[in-house]
Model the fold of this input.
Amino acid sequence: MLSFSQKRQLRRFATSRLMHIALLFACVAVGVSAYGRYEVAREMAQRRAAAERELASLSERRAALEAEVAYLKSERGIEAEMRRQFDIAREGEQVVIILDKPTTAETN
Done:
């Protein structure tokens, strides 16, 4: 157990100006550190949201590409793509190429 004079010295030290300054410095240091962690957490949340948006976009693109691949694997898809790219026709069919009407500047 501490004696009365020891308790008084301890109380005087705890309420001294030096102790107040040390406590203020510690509070400021903790505050600065907490704010730094808050900024890091906010930046990570923004990065996560951007990554989730990109993932959703890529998932939509993947679904579209898978649908296109499935279409191109079918007979109808292969035939349609060949007709579109190479202007081909089956036996007995004829290829018709439609041209725009010439403008008046081209006819003069």
Q: What stands out?
A: The CA atoms of residues 63 and 69 lie 10 Å apart. The helical segments are 4-14, 17-73, 75-86, 104-107.
